Amino acid sequence: MDPRRPLFLSLLLFFSFASVAHATGVFHVRHKYLDRKRAIADLRAHDSRRHGRILSAVDIPIGGVGLPTDTGLYYAEIGIGTPSKKYYVQVDTGSDILWVNCVTCTRCPKKSDIGIELTLYDPKGSNSASLVSCDDNFCTSMYGGEMQGCSQGTPCQYRVLYGDGSSTAGLFVTDFVQYNQVSGNHQTTPANESVSFGCSAEQSGDLGSSNEALDGIFGFGQSNSSMISQLAAAGKVRKVFAHCLDTVKGGGIFAIGNVVEPKVKTTPLIPNMSHYNVNLKAIEVGGAFLQLPTDLFETGDQKGTIIDSGTTLSYLPEAAYKQLMNAIFSYQPNLSFRTIQDFLCFQYIGSVDDGFPDIVFHFQNSLSLNVYPHDYLFQNEDDVYCVGWQNGGVQSKGGKDVFLLGDLVLSNKLVLYDLENQDIGWTEYNCSSSIQIKDDKTGAIYIVDAHKISPAGRLEVGMSILVVLLTIMICYLNC
Ligand SMILES: *[C@@H]1O[C@H](CO)[C@@H](O)[C@H](O)[C@H]1NC(C)=O
Ligand SMILES: *[C@@H]1O[C@H](CO)[C@@H](O)[C@H](O)[C@H]1NC(C)=O
Ligand SMILES: *[C@@H]1O[C@H](CO)[C@@H](O)[C@H](O)[C@H]1NC(C)=O
Ligand SMILES: *[C@@H]1O[C@H](CO)[C@@H](O)[C@H](O)[C@H]1NC(C)=O
Ligand SMILES: *[C@@H]1O[C@H](CO)[C@@H](O)[C@H](O)[C@H]1NC(C)=O
């Protein structure tokens, strides 16, 4: 096991993510809300909630396959700048900003083994680019106030630390981001909005290697700095999005808007968490419940179970992991195990779905998540399977571990994040098919199809591609 992983997962439990705090309202405009220190963006969001007339749905083309034996990730295609250029960015619900590699980056990957063509963003090459200054509203609301030593024209810097130990740093810029607005059945028209995002000049950890290199990361977190929050604040979209990640064919569906088909059952998000956390109540293996202490599901500052599309596998506290593994392998007592690249693997002849139990995670509000043997056991070579469950094995100060459910369990399901109602839900779904989204502008219901962005080359990797893209911290200068 990568020795960094337990360390950084444990960091998750210690940081309070307090870096993103309240906006301070630096706009000097007269308005009745000024006294209450409301930023302009808030007013626009307020208005659009009332009128709902300019809201629309967005269809984001995605590619990639979440299997550890394939790309291990999903990525989206977006356009940035004037004239617009294409960028491929990893979609990640565990982090809060969009960033792309900048032309000033000297150690950024130049080529990608995934076969996509990498593009460095050049603010000077875009007519519509501008630098975010440290006293701009975006910067001050990001860091909960003006930074020390901030004077007009000083750039707004950032460093993001991710859960797998990688990090990136750079400057925030504002430019037009182009996306596909859903305009009819199977049909989109280009739209754009001015968005603030990171222009990264420095990478470390896996982000610097060309293995699974992409142009950047597309954070779909709840914080005001994410692109969905900025689009919502500009009155362009509702704060509702969905993904359906396909491990069978690759790609899938990633859309912003009010999904009306399929219908999903939901569970509440735990309030005030920096990630998408939900209340896991019980785990069932082949019809029998694991006997777990209920306080195992509570993890101190990071309450509940984190749902994260930017993480390849799924991580459980040691006590849950051990019971789960015992329960699974009680179905096959005669297997002999070996370790392949840190994974627990075994030989098995026949269909794993016939020989191993289904696993059901039970959440608050009776929402359940079924995980089948072919989801949690992935085939490494003929007749050799490896286990996707990982032993988090990390203790916080309070002696508690973290549950983190990644693509291993989220794939092949339509997962809906309704940030307006603060809940999340899912249903099993064919992610190569289509969904229906209601256009709030017209009331029309449109069909949105699956996409698969096909990279030119074919990926040859072992099982090395595992990402844990939860933001641990976003900070201004030193962290
Ligand atoms: C984020 O934006 C919302 C609505 O636009 C606003 O109510 C809230 O105070 C903002 N939060 C921060 C931390 O800036
Ligand atoms: C933004 O969209 C408008 C309206 O469709 C279009 O006229 C303009 O060229 C677009 N600008 C950019 C930078 O994409
Ligand atoms: C969440 O945070 C807000 C503002 O900090 C606070 O008013 C509210 O009570 C918190 N909610 C919970 C459930 O902790
Ligand atoms: C495991 O091996 C024992 C002894 O060889 C045998 O009796 C049993 O049927 C085997 N179980 C399975 C599930 O193959
Ligand atoms: C999933 O949907 C696609 C497109 O409609 C279809 O071709 C495929 O057969 C479906 N797969 C399954 C397993 O139903």
Give me a quick take on this structure:
Keywords: Aspartyl protease, Disulfide bond, Glycoprotein, Hydrolase, Membrane, Protease, Signal, Transmembrane, Transmembrane helix. By secondary structure, the chain is mainly beta.
Q: Describe it for me?
A:
With 479 residues, this protein is mainly beta. It is built from eight helices and 32 strands. It has helices at 4-14, 40-51, 137-143, 227-233, 318-329, 352-355, 373-376, 407-410, and strands at 58-59, 62-65, 73-80, 85-92, 98-101, 130-131, 157-162, 167-184, 187-204, 216-219, 240-245, 252-256, 258-261, 265-268, 277-278, 280-285, 288-289, 305-307, 314-316, 337-340, 343-347, 359-363, 367-371, 377-381, 384-387, 389-391, 403-405, 413-418, 423-428, 434-438, 445-449, 471-475. The protein is globular. The chain binds 2-acetamido-2-deoxy-beta-D-glucopyranose (NAG) (5 copies). One 2-acetamido-2-deoxy-beta-D-glucopyranose (NAG) binds at residues 271-272. One of its GO terms (biological process) is proteolysis. Belongs to the peptidase A1 family. Pfam families: TAXi_C, TAXi_N. Disulfide bonds join 345-386. This is Aspartic proteinase 39-like.
